[in-house]
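Hi support team,

I submitted a single chain yesterday and got back a structure, but I'm not sure I'm reading the C-alpha cell output correctly. Could someone confirm the output below corresponds to the sequence I sent? I've pasted both exactly as they appear in my results page.

Thanks,
R.
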Amino acid sequence: MRSTFTGVPGLSVTPEAAVVVDVMRAFTVAAWAFRRGAEKIVFTGTLEEALELKARHPDWLAFQDGAPLPGFDLANSPARLRALDVAGRTVVQKTTAGTAGALAVADARLLLCASFVVAEATAELLRRARPDAVTFVVTGDGGQAEEDLACAQYIAARAVSGPTDPGPFLDRARRSDAAALLADGVRHGRLGVDPEDVDLCLEADVFPFAMAAAREDGRLVLRPVENGSPGRGAPRRTGTGSGR
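Hi R., thanks for writing in. Yes, this is the structure output for that exact sequence:
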C-alpha cells in the first residue's frame, strides 16, 4: 500500500482511496458522537446549509467550529459533546478543515475520516480493503498541520507494519500549533473550547470502529463501520463501541 500525504490544495484528481484526517477537532468530535450513539453525520459546505437542514429536521443536531453560533448545538468540542443527548440522532457538521476536506474527495471509492481515537480501526479497515494506494488528506493549516500529519503517518504505519507505538506521533501532535491554540483559548476563556479538548483529541485507538463516508441522496454522510466491511457496498453499522 503506497501512502501519499497532501493537503486539499495538493489534490489534483480524486483518489481511489482517501483518509481525511482532522484531529483537532472535527473527527474527534465525530467519533465521540458515534460512541454516544449518533446514527449518522451529514457534512455540509456552508453554515447556512447546515441550519437549513436542521430547520427541515428539527430533531437533528448541528455542529460547527469556531465560537458558538445561534442555531448550532455544539462548537466542535469533544468534551462538551458529552453533555448532549445524541443517541439515535442525526448530526449535521460543518467545519473549516475536516468536513471541507471530506467534501473535496467525496467521490473517492473508499473514503474514511479519521483522528487518533479511531486510528487503529482505520488502519485495520485499510488492511482489509487492501487498496494499492491511499491518499491521506491533511486538513488543518492548508495541509501543513502537524497533528493531522502525525495521525495520518501513524495510521499509515499501522496499516502497513501492524503494531506501532503511538507515543512519538502523539508527542508531535501535543506540540502542534493547533494544540497550543486550543490551550490559549482555554486560558483566555474563549467560548466553544473546553480544558479537556486537547487530551481527548490525543487519545490513541480508543474506539473499535472506523468512520466511512459515502453519498446518500446527494449528500455526503459519515457512518461508523465495523472492520471487515470496507468500501461502499453494505457496511455494517457498529454500536456505541467500548470506549470511555
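A quick pointer for reading it: The chain has one domain: 2-225. Let us know if anything else looks off.

Best,
Support desk
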